[in-house]
Design brief:
CATH topology of the largest domain: Rossmann fold
Oligomer: single chain
Strand order of the largest sheet: 1-2-10-7-8-9
Structural class: alpha/beta
Number of domains: 2
Radius of gyration: 19 Å
Mean pLDDT: 93
Number of strands: 10
Order of helices and strands: EEHHEHEHHEHEHEHEHEHHEH
Distance between the termini: 46 Å
Helix content: 40-55%
CATH class of the largest domain: Alpha Beta
């Protein structure tokens, strides 16, 4: 349901506003709903096939599968060769997406970039290719709608300045929010994939700026790897706020947000969804603990 509500929570001795985009839709939640908003609104006869690519447990993959299932479109998804454990029995977002009718195409690691380049050149009638993670111009309208909701909420609550915080995979949501919002709202993001240089390269493919502020990257950590401090933050957030956040993007962003933003700032965190992936991440943490014994 739009506009998504805003909750106020107390965490580590200060107040935070939480934009609950995770509650918009049980399948198409968070920033994936925003990115796919334009496609949700167009007539189903406009397309017959959607093609995308990325990781085998991608939140965007599952969201697109939900969209295609609702529209009656075929969904073809390209990913690098899956681990044997997933071939033996799909779990998590992969399982959920396959249940929605997604057709999986595995590509050898060394050939994946070449395959992506081929996919991006497809120009077939009634076929749409969506870039990895929804990093596409098609995402702009839905994210601009989010920006308008935030600006209206800020005005209604008589807040002069606001610091907006969200995690970045492709960085598309953060980029278009910065583009749509005024200077009285600062946009901060935590980069989870690659480094600052990589993130700016991705942004430049979509826009000439302005760009969001990136929290400093002190320690390079591998994407989606189970780190103890992330699990600790996940558990603390749930215990204190009663809200479940995703285990890949949210913990690092909350750590950096608490470390970098001043106590007297009005801070809004955008809950970008993705909790459907927590099942497989929690299994990885359990496996990690087992191996320590």
């Amino acid at each position: 349901m739009l506009p998504s509500r805003v909750d106020t929570v107390q965490f580590r001795g200060r107040s935070f506003y939480i934009k609950r985009d995770d509650l918009i839709d049980p399948c198409l939640s968070g920033n994936k709903y925003r990115k796919l908003y334009t496609l949700l609104k167009i007539p189903k006869q406009n397309y017959t096939k959607i093609i995308s690519y990325g990781g085998g447990q991608s939140n965007a993959m599952y969201a697109i599968a939900c969209l295609c299932h609702a529209k009656g479109w075929a969904f073809h998804y390209y990913t690098k060769t899956l681990p044997q454990v997933l071939k033996d029995g799909a779990v998590g977002n992969l399982e959920l997406a396959i249940e929605k009718g997604m057709i999986v195409h595995e590509v050898e690691h060394v050939a994946f970039e070449e395959k992506v380049a081929q996919l991006q050149k497809i120009n077939e009638k009634q076929t749409l290719v969506i870039r990895q993670g929804g990093a596409d111009e098609v995402a702009k309208n839905g994210i601009y709608l989010l920006a308008d909701e935030i600006a209206q909420w800020k005005k209604k609550n008589s807040i002069n300045e606001l610091s907006l915080v969200l995690p970045s995979g492709t960085g598309t949501t953060a980029l278009y929010l910065r583009e749509a919002l005024g200077k009285d709202i600062k946009v901060y993001t935590s980069v989870l994939v690659g480094d600052e240089k990589y993130q700016y390269e991705q942004w430049k493919k979509l826009s000439d700026g302005p760009y969001p502020h990136i929290f400093a990257l002190e320690n390079k950590q591998k994407f989606a790897k189970p780190y103890d401090e992330y699990l600790d933050m996940y558990k603390e957030l749930y215990k204190v706020t009663g809200i479940e956040f995703d285990l890949i993007y949210a913990p690092k962003t909350w750590i950096q947000m608490c470390e970098n933003l001043k106590d007297d700032e009005n801070v809004m965190y955008i809950h970008t969804g993705g909790v459907s992936g927590n099942t497989t991440m929690l299994e990885r943490y359990a496996h990690k603990r087992k191996n320590r014994r």
